[in-house]
Write a structure and sequence with these properties.
With 191 residues, the chain is an all-alpha fold. The chain is built from six helices and no strands. It is globular.
């Protein structure tokens, strides 16, 4: 946090979102704050200005697509009842997290050219953020507890966390292998 509680170091830009500042007085030798978004080069004056309109529009459009896909999945594979295991939400979150792993490798590690600056807000925050769902996960957990299914609720909570984290890792690792990028944690090992 910057002076006076601003998240962007007191620059008056509100928050350090896409193209924002990391704030807190940290910067490089030129005194330019570090970019939170690696797609932004804050040494280029035109990239320092925040233009939230296109970013918000990309997120909204992607979110509508992602949420619609999640809703479609719930229609195709509806929950069986009050105490039923919420498989649709679990698999939606696991699949979404795997796709987040794929997307982040392709955007941040794999490109020979930088992707369009709205790819990550549209696909990552919008589509995949709308597709995955923490709120439904919390409601499903609460619903299972209310139905007296504490063991099932705890299993669901644990499976979701382990599955989601494992899916991000697996999606990223498989994408690195498929694209020929180095798999992290293997640089110092010999085959």
């Amino acid at each position: 946090m910057g002076a006076g509680g601003d998240l962007d170091g007191g620059h008056g830009h509100g928050h350090g979102g896409e193209g924002g500042y990391s704030g807190g007085g940290y910067g490089d030798a030129d005194g330019v704050a570090e970019a939170i978004d690696p797609d932004v080069d804050l040494h280029v004056p035109g990239q320092r200005a925040e233009r939230p309109g296109p970013v918000l529009a990309a997120i909204a459009a992607g979110g509508a697509l992602g949420a619609s896909a999640r809703y479609g999945a719930s229609l195709v594979w509806p929950a069986a009842g009050a105490g039923a295991f919420p498989w649709t939400t679990l698999w939606t979150n696991v699949i979404g997290c795997a796709l987040i792993g794929v997307l982040m490798v392709l955007i941040s590690e794999g490109g020979r050219t930088a992707p369009h600056p709205l790819v990550r807000p549209f696909a990552g925050v919008g589509v995949l953020g709308g597709f995955t769902t923490f709120s439904t996960y919390a409601v499903d957990f609460s619903r299972l507890l209310d139905a007296g299914e504490a063991e099932r609720a705890l299993a669901y909570a644990g499976l979701t966390v382990v599955g989601a984290l494992g899916a991000v890792w697996a999606g990223a690792a498989v994408t690195r292998l498929a694209t020929g990028l180095p798999v992290r944690g293997r640089q110092g090992r010999r085959a």
